[in-house]
Amino acid sequence: MQPDDAVTSEEGAPVEAAPAEEEAPVRDELRAPVLEALEAALGDAVVATEVRPGQDAWARIRVDAWGEAARVLREELGFTYFCFLSAVDWLPSPFGKSEDDAAPVAVDPGAPFDHGTTGGDTRFQLIARVERPGTGLGITLKADVADDAPAAPTWSTVYLGANWHERECWEMFGITFDGHPNLSHLYLPGEFEGHPLRKDFPLISRMVKPWPGLVDVEPMPGETNDEEEGAEVAAE
Amino acid sequence: MTAITERQQRAYIGAVAAEARVNVELETEGMTLNIGPQHPATHGTLRIVVQLDGEQVIAAEPMPGYMHRGYEKLTEVRTYPQVTTLVNRIDWLGHFANEVPFILAAEQLMDIEAPPRAQWIRTVFFELARQANITLFLGDLGAQIGAITPVFYAFRDREHILNLMESVTGGRFHPNFDRIGGLKDDLPKGWIEECKGVMGRVKGFCDQMEDLLFGNEIFQTRLRGIGVIPADVALSYGLSGANLRASGVDWDLRRDRDYPLAWKEADWKVWTHPDGDSFARCWVRLQEVRESAKIVEQLLDGIPSGPIMAKVPRIIKVPAGEAWVSTENPLGEMGYYVVSKGDLGPFRCKIRSASFNNVSVIPWVMKGVYVPDVIAILASLYFILGDIDR
What we know:
The structure holds 2 protein chains of 2 kinds.
Chain A: H1 4-23, H2 32-42, E1 46-52, E2 56-61, H3 66-76, E3 81-89, E4 124-131, E5 138-145, E6 151-153, H4 162-173, E7 176-178, H5 204-208, H6 226-235
Parallel strand pairs in A: 2-5, 6-7
Antiparallel strand pairs in A: 1-2, 3-4, 4-5
Chain B: H1 6-25, E1 31-35, E2 47-53, E3 56-63, H2 71-75, H3 80-87, H4 95-110, H5 116-144, H6 149-169, E4 178-179, E5 182-183, H7 191-214, H8 217-223, H9 231-237, H10 242-245, H11 253-256, H12 278-302, E6 321-329, E7 332-340, E8 348-352, H13 354-360, H14 362-365, H15 371-381, H16 385-389
Antiparallel strand pairs in B: 1-2, 2-3, 4-5, 6-7, 7-8
Helix pairs in contact in B: 3-4, 4-5, 5-6, 5-7, 5-12, 5-15, 6-7, 7-12, 12-15
């Protein structure tokens, strides 16, 4: 793992700097009005928004307005196409990547979670995406759900396709959806215990036989920096 | 001669009495019919439990999960380059097309772009994967509704596309060829000419299918007006690809979204159909293969020269961030929501596969159809089990 710091110092820095420079002046004429309309309809239930100009838009909604957000998007803003609904468990994995050369991961259970775009307050976050058909315009919604007994209002009454996605989310993350007509197992057998996509659910097969990990990307002899690598790849 | 026992005699009388009762009262009882998990129409192992009232379906409930391989969990313990080997196997007939959106998402987070030559060749392979996938669909479609011949033609012509893939990537089904920043390798000598020949063949196959199947009276009777899905229902269920365009929604991500890939360089058409029935779904797919062959033919003449890989560090670390990229895959919209925390592998990768949504409409569309239509609707919705279960 020793060459890692060499890579981040050269390549990590400019990448992180670039979006910050662009975002401030550029207003996305396609996506910004959508977020404004959503804020107008839902008021302070919209906790945070973010637009990456020309690419994508995010909005974080308070969980009690989750169902209302779906209705506004579908009926008022024309986002009639349901793309997906799922969740993210922001707990850092206590098992790491289960590589045989990896150091054990120390997880501080009290530490705040390192949330992604639009931030967050809780361990579990719902993500859902809807799109306006015929265009390239879509929006990703997020909502924080309570750590103990995570629950959210169902979308399946607004978007019919959310039915299966919520069933999957329920069995994989243990998030219940209030008002869902049939919250039963979709993939897993009925007697299955646990929620496999939670970070504290171990991937047993991987722990029994660890993956060799970085073996196949070991640096080649004579490689020191990106300059040489680029030249070599071009020559190939 | 042995005399029958008293027990046998009672059973015989009971059976006759039961038959008489049915004949006299014409009473039908509800019946549960299990389709699958092993059935040629399920492209894998999908089980559908159908409640019947006579010949009519009153409820149908698909039960996926027989092929769940836990890819979303597995991506969390792999590095970015290792993920492409996994996602290859999601829609195993559209192999290469599965890799592209994931690689694009990683490239978006790293803020790098593959060189133009790589983008063009990516587009060509993407379309070849589409043709390999839908060619087999057209043949299989015939087989599922009772026409055996088309499936042989389909396998024959798909073989040429797979040979093209093999001669470049080394893999017929799982090329694992797309890399962050470009492609693994360049095209071999003479490949472009060979590919043009195959495109002629694919177009010929489409013409043949149109004559053989789509003009056939039995074929039309089996599919026309069966399993009609209106546009608003299709959108609400998140149907995508040809299933959505067959309901009259003019939406193709290749045309309507900005990709670094070269679709915009070619002149082609998005076909829709107003009917929304099984026939429309099959017909739109047939046109999709034709247009796809056209795209490839046009792109082959204009592949720019230059490098095949951008400058990418040997050990790929993706900066923290979130990205959603989806593309118009053979089965519909296939996308990845990648959450990165700056590690060697994704922190979370939500895989949005087209068939999952496409199949979730089954309980809605199968209400009230007759038993033979169940297979016709399944065939026309076209799903791959690996694409439902992931």
